[in-house]
TrEMBL record:
<protein>
    <recommendedName>
        <fullName>Na(+)/H(+) antiporter NhaA</fullName>
    </recommendedName>
</protein>
<dbReference type="GO" id="GO:0005886">
    <property type="term" value="C:plasma membrane"/>
</dbReference>
<feature type="transmembrane region" description="Helical">
    <location>
        <begin position="195"/>
        <end position="212"/>
    </location>
</feature>
<keyword id="KW-0472">Membrane</keyword>
<keyword id="KW-0050">Antiport</keyword>
<feature type="transmembrane region" description="Helical">
    <location>
        <begin position="346"/>
        <end position="373"/>
    </location>
</feature>
<keyword id="KW-1133">Transmembrane helix</keyword>
<dbReference type="InterPro" id="IPR004670">
    <property type="entry name" value="NhaA"/>
</dbReference>
<keyword id="KW-1003">Cell membrane</keyword>
<keyword id="KW-0812">Transmembrane</keyword>
<keyword id="KW-0813">Transport</keyword>
<feature type="transmembrane region" description="Helical">
    <location>
        <begin position="219"/>
        <end position="234"/>
    </location>
</feature>
<feature type="transmembrane region" description="Helical">
    <location>
        <begin position="142"/>
        <end position="162"/>
    </location>
</feature>
<feature type="transmembrane region" description="Helical">
    <location>
        <begin position="279"/>
        <end position="300"/>
    </location>
</feature>
<feature type="compositionally biased region" description="Pro residues">
    <location>
        <begin position="436"/>
        <end position="447"/>
    </location>
</feature>
<feature type="transmembrane region" description="Helical">
    <location>
        <begin position="312"/>
        <end position="334"/>
    </location>
</feature>
<keyword id="KW-0915">Sodium</keyword>
Length: 447
């Protein structure tokens, strides 16, 4: 059935250019997710082995100049320094999506933005309800984040034929999620603010912005300015990862008219994203996971004891239940009160599978847990257990749902991959989703 005039299809097929770019991004993130899984497993095994003391000694080793207040532990360097690279890439991706990607159309942007907001508000409310009247309310933001690398690693293990539109939705939701998470960190988890240092950070940030706006790509100019910005933001009391997002937002997405304009090829944002995404996915996030995930569980009794803490229970409830209710609920509201409707080949079980993947909250959840309760504290260990249990349960449930949908996904993929001619672009992208001759699967309602 064709959509009514003026309506927007939810999860509809985007442009071929954007679909190709997203596919390349997802391949890199999937590899990064597998490295993230490896780092997590090694950390957990080491922290629960007879050599756990060596792991803690390595994590707590201090390096850096004390005169600049940068004699930080390796774990802190991973959380404050390496994750700044992660948020820089996320900021570039988000800006590109809304300036030059398919989401520059507000009708396409409203759904992932609404889903991301719903997927943060509901988990936070559930966590707060579980911890009402206790001393754990400070961690309300822990279950609000989605880890795209981990989620895509789960998809890689499932080997699902998930439609590209849903993958794009998951990626966009996670990127918007990251931006909202860094805003929460900056606003709610800044214990003290040194306005002078923050104002000083605007100087190298402004110079960096001036140079990139003039399309300067020389690393020996840009890198020192980025490091200075990071140092000053760190000294200001605001979490240093905020510097990564601020730097990313200064980078132009579209080529200047002198360089040929938008049709002349990728802009500087895409160039920098291409350069730094392998560092983010392959080094920054896995190393952070290695230092953050090493919690001594203490066997089954220790696991039960940790889950007896309302903080851990709130995190599990937020990730497993809150994410699904928030993402699916926000999507339902968009389709209920706007002219948006599902693309013909998709249905609500597909969205539930995506929402369950949204409950895989790892990197940013662990970071917020450390900020809320302090690195190495007993409550921080309970946070790690809650995040790990919530993530594993969400991943397992997502695997079950998506496996059940795998046959339908495969049929949809086979129908959409036909008719690729000499130009290398599947004709389905050239005809559009409602054009005559576009392959259609059987209606969703027939099972």
């Amino acid at each position: 059935m064709n959509a009514p005039h003026g309506s927007t299809r939810v999860f509809a097929r985007g442009s071929w250019t954007e679909a190709s770019r997203i596919a390349a991004v997802l391949r890199r993130e999937t590899v990064g997710g597998l490295l993230l899984l490896a780092g997590t497993v090694v950390a957990l095994a080491w922290a629960n082995s007879p050599w756990s003391g060596a792991y803690e000694a390595l994590r707590d080793t201090r390096v850096g100049p004390a005169s600049l207040h940068l004699d930080l532990t390796l774990g802190t360097w991973a959380a404050d320094g390496l994750l700044a690279v992660f948020f820089f890439v996320a900021g570039l991706e988000l800006k590109r999506e809304f300036v030059a990607g398919d989401l520059r159309d507000p009708r396409r942007a409203v759904l992932p933005v609404a889903a991301a907001v719903g997927g943060m508000v509901v988990p936070a409310v559930l966590y707060a309800l579980v911890n009402l009247g206790g001393d754990g309310l400070r961690g309300w933001a822990i279950p609000t984040a989605t880890d795209i690398a981990f989620a895509l690693a789960v998809l890689a293990v499932i080997s699902t034929h998930l439609p590209s539109a849903l993958r794009t939705f998951l990626l966009t939701l996670a990127v918007v999620d990251d931006l909202l998470a860094i805003t929460i960190i900056a606003v709610f988890y800044t214990s003290s603010l040194a306005a002078g240092w923050l104002a000083l950070a605007l100087v190298p940030l402004a110079v960096f912005g001036f140079l990139v706006q003039r399309r300067v790509r020389s690393w020996w100019l840009l890198l020192p300015l980025a490091v200075l910005t990071w140092v000053f933001v760190h000294e200001s009391g605001v979490h240093a990862t905020v510097a990564g997002v601020l730097l990313a937002f200064t980078v132009p997405v579209v080529r200047s008219e002198a360089a040929g304009g938008p049709d002349a090829g990728p802009g500087l944002a895409e160039h920098l994203e291409h350069r730094f995404r392998p560092i983010s996915a392959g080094i920054a996030v896995p190393v952070f996971a290695f230092f953050a995930a090493g919690v001594t569980v203490g066997g089954l009794s220790g696991l039960v004891e940790s889950l007896g803490d309302r903080v851990a229970l709130g995190i599990v409830a937020g990730l497993v239940v809150g994410k699904v209710v928030g993402i699916v609920g926000a999507t339902w509201l968009v389709t209920r009160f706007t002219r948006a409707e599902f693309a013909d080949e998709l249905g609500w079980p597909d969205l539930v599978g995506m929402a369950l993947l949204g409950g895989i909250g790892f990197t940013v959840s662990l970071l917020i847990g450390e900020l809320a309760f302090g690195t190495g504290s007993e409550r921080d260990d309970h946070v790690k257990v809650g995040v790990l249990v919530g993530t594993v349960v969400s991943a397992l449930l997502a695997a079950v749902v998506l496996r059940l949908r795998n046959r339908r996904y495969r049929r949809i993929e086979e129908l959409e991959s036909v008719d690729e001619d000499a130009d290398g672009i599947p004709d389905v992208y050239q005809r559009g989703p409602d054009a005559p001759g576009t392959p259609r699967p059987r209606p969703f309602t027939d099972g």
